[in-house]
Amino acid sequence: MSSITVLCIAFVVGYAFIALESVTKINKAAIAILMCVVCWTLLALGHEGMGLPGFELGESIEKNLGEAGTTLFFLMGAMTIVEIVDQHGGFNWVRGALKSRTKRSLLWKIAFMTAILSAVLDNLTTSIVMIMILRKLVHDHQDRLWYAVCVIIAANAGGAFSPIGDVTTIMLWNGKMITALGVIQEIIIPSFVAFIVPTAVLQLHLSGNLPQVVDKREASISGITKVQRNLIFALGVGGLCCVPVFHTLTGLPAFVGILGVLGILWCVTEIIYRKKEEHDPMAKRVTNLLSRIDLSTIMFFLGILMAVATLSEVGVLTAIGKWLDEVVGNDYLVTGAIGILSSIVDNVPLVAGAMKMYVIDPNSVNFAVDGIFWQLLAYCAGVGGSMLIIGSAAGVVVMGLERISFGWYMKNVTWIAFVGYIAGMLCYWVEKTYLF
User: Fold this and answer.
1) Bridge partners of 42?
2) Cβ neighbours around 258 below 10 Å, total
3) For the CA atoms of the chain, what is the radius of gyration?
4) DSSP 3-state assignment of 294?
5) What's the pTM?
6) Of 364, 350, 377, which is closest to residue 173 (Cα–Cα)?
7) Is 392 within 8 Å of 385 (Cβ atoms)?
8) What pLDDT, in 10s, does the model give residues 192-249?
9) Three-state SS for 268?
10) DSSP 3-state assignment of 122?
11) Residue 377, CB half-sphere, CA atoms under 13 Å: how many?
12) What is the DSSP letter of 162?
């Protein structure tokens, strides 16, 4: 058995354990880190037998770690910014904007608000915020299930057309496969179609008016004024929206812009709390909020990205890419299959693998920057995860919060999400064929 075969087997076994996290009860971050170490160890010990002349282990690790680091630092900065805004009550206005008389009007407001927020925040955070608000607006659990389904579909669709809305689009943007303007301009309509069509079907399960709920929101959060709370919200969310502009104007990596926004927000909150004691529980200092960041998610991304890098180094992903071109030869079918597969397994390694399979080709319509393949990959990997409730971070968190079973979702929702997924792809095909 060749060294490359052993490396591939190690990766597949690790991938299988990640996909079966709900069965094994082992955190996927732990498996990803272990898989990363095993794959790089096999590469270090067997690279001479893999036919890699001139291979430098140190240079390879530094190069791939640098590429992964741009995504990781971006995520860490963005997660911290969202946590600061959330802890200071910055999202209270969302609840007021969603007030509705009828159940169907609330559903449509939920759909559009979720998609828009997901384009600025990440789909996981948006889902948590929306479910917490829904619990205060809709008390009937059976009705709330359909709203929760709408949140999952809209959050994944909204993240697909924004360079900062989903981990996979962040990866493609940092890898310079897509540009901020390009993905927004050409994917926004397919993404909206991908959640509007399912929402039109979901509304058939709801009818009647909503009972009036007394608004008991607190006048202040953490002892700060409304002006200070609005300032934190404007700096945090406004800063996130300006990161693509910063990247375009300066040419610096996107994570530099994110860190800049975090630095400004950190300084502002320190000024607000300058008269409070260091350990005052009412002072939501950034140093305390950093402990709330989901470090296991960061470690998972690190492990996956570095493990996938080993397959790229030995040429496996390039070979798979060539095989797909020869056998399938259609970008819509290839990316469409990746999207469906992303509902079963995590979309991060799928996109990371696709990015290593193919290279940017300025002379190709499909593989140039903002080419058809890269834009379809951003759409399919993001929207495809809605077809199963375990297919996205948004789905998994809503599954836990609202106690939605895998079987119920698959029976009642999978076909609805699939129809929206295909409708969005057809919309993109029309755009590229007749408009752009």
Assistant:
1) none
2) 26
3) 22
4) coil
5) 0.75
6) 377
7) yes
8) 999 999 999 999 999 888 876 555 444 445 567 888 888 998 998 888 888 888 887 8
9) helix
10) coil
11) 33
12) S
